[in-house]
Amino acid sequence: MADKGSSPPPPPPGRNPRLPSKAEGGWPKWSMWVVVVVLGLLLALTLSSPGEDASQITYDEFLTLVSGGEITDVEYDNASARIEATTAEGEILRTTGLAEWPPDDLTLLRENDVNFKPITDTGNAFLNLIPVLLPFIFIMGFLYWLARRQQSQMGGIMSIGRSKAKTYSSERPGTTFADVAGYAGVKKEVTEVIDFLKDPSKFGDVGARIPKGVLLVGPPGTGKTLIARAVAGEAGVPFLSVTGSDFMEMFVGVGASRVRDLFSEARKMGKAIIFIDEIDSIGRKRGAGMGGGHDEREQTLNQMLAEMDGFETTEGIVMIAATNRPDILDPALLRPGRFDRQVVVPLPELEDRKEILRVHIKHKRMADDVDVHVIARGTPGMSGADLANLVNEAALFAVRREASKVYAADFDAARDRVLLGIERESMVRNQADVERTAYHEAGHAVCASVQEGHDPVHKVTIIPTGMALGVTMTLPTEDKYKIEQSEAEARIIMALGGRNAEQLVFSEVTSGASDDLRQATQMARRMVTEWGMSEAIGPMSLGDSAPVFLGEDLMHSKSFSDETAKLIDDETRRILVEMEERCKVLLQNHRGALDLIARRLLEHETVSGEEVDRLIRLSIEDPIKAAETLAQAVPKASVRDAPIPTAPAPSAPAPSAVPPAEQSNGAESSD
What architecture (CATH level 2) is domain 350-420? Predict the structure, then answer.
């Protein structure tokens, strides 16, 4: 599934997202700064009085002027002992006297006919109130802050039962089917929901009933959420999106309350789509947990079941849910009348992958050698999210090379990086380990190439990649959806090729084949227990593929006896031993090709699939020239001499390889 890119929904019209918003029921954040500035201005204006021009003199100079008869008026402040004298010319002089006016100085003023006026300055009324009002203001402000804090906490507690669904209205630019690449069948399945939401009368006239719920089922990354949003965008109705975990809380009954609020909110909108992602988190089978019916998750599920029965199809409310684990959902949730339609969203096929890749490379600078068909053919089993990551990794590789465009080589490197891991070129290994790894990977390559119908080898490398010391990567030519017995046996032979190549050349095996043995054993056991490919077991399915979770399967017992278990082990071992014998014969018959590929790996570290095929053909069609080529390569790499067959031996017929559905990345690795 491909998305043009998810972005946060735009703000409502008329609102600038950069401006600070006012909290609901409170003051704007800048209001406090306005109050502080106003109080500061008032204080400054109060303290700054428009004083007259005055000269400052000493007290002795003041007495001298009084004795000389130059002072006519005197104002004396009893509180601050400030003296303000006025001369005969009208000049104002200021000085500071004593706290108590001396009697001799008072006599001097009377003798010189000075108008003496004692005053008591009461100060500014506002400044006098500050010492009284300031503590009161602080106390009231603290009480107001405490009340607001308690109110917000109580509001949070009281709103804990409110739904956490995100609402996407039809006014916002939504996702449409144009943003969904591929999946024509899935779009056709959900088109009925769109038609019903647009014109419900068309269904009512005929008496048809649209499904109340649509369950999208598919692996992770296939775009189930994107499809649900596209349905809402095409229908032009509000879209309520919520995840299953949003209903869970530490308080009992919160989940059920949120379910009720979610459906109540949807009913107020008239027509709406309720989308619940990861519904398996609340929709698991009841009775599967350790608790009883009082379990919070089960109460939430019960409320959802009741709500889905509580609205009619004519109300215009459609539920869409997504999960990648439909097998653990409660049967009551899947019955008709609730989620009565399941739409499978599988991994994209070849044509779908091509459309998805075109969407993701649309806004990237691509070179002319980039072929979408080639990239899609080499990415079987990848989801839409994996393909988006692949395109991004290719762009990153181009940036690292300081290239102006993304080339096909960047996609090859990105695919190897995603499927196999990062190359550890700095890892130091001795020559003996390198030689063993070369023959190990050459054994895988020979077993994969000489068998008819097997997936072709894409590349072979002895550069440590991921957790492996070497990798043999195969890519299928087409998508496959089933596996035949011959294909499963061929897959086991290829997995054992590296171990048997080491034993053939070096007469001993190493622990490097541990992962190969694990893969081969798993394949053989599935042949016996699941696919009925063992005559001793017969047409029986003994595998337990159901997921195990706490409760229901806690005391789950085996469905077969101990004798059958021993028979399974014996049959698994028999298949592995037989495939190992076939692998040994195959490698002995193609010893020349094994040596040529190993020598080429020692020279270049990485060999392409085309080069592997050429070396195998050379060893079969012209063994003399192959021997000369091998002799010329010996001085360049100190490897163990090995006999070269003088004539090609017929290769044992082998079937095609395992389809992508049965292998994770099409690669063989040695630990």
Answer: Orthogonal Bundle (1.10)
